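Could you join me in thinking about how sequence relates to backbone shape in a protein? Label the sequence line and the structure token line clearly, so we can match residues to local backbone shapes. Once you have written the record down, we can walk along the chain together.
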Amino acid sequence: MNVNRAKEISQLGEMVNVHYQNEGIYIQSVDEEQGTARIYPLNNPQEEKSVPVDHLIEG
């Protein structure tokens, strides 16, 4: 996924099917300069982490 799409998804306010390491995730925010996204697994909102945007898969 690219930074612009990740940022768009984070601002939609609706669920979009996105995965990180085969796990459904929610994108909280995107750091364009770092190319990272702040995410958490849908089944564990307390497990927040920053990951490279290009490791996120939509669909």
Q: What stands out?
A: The first helix runs from residue 3 to 12.
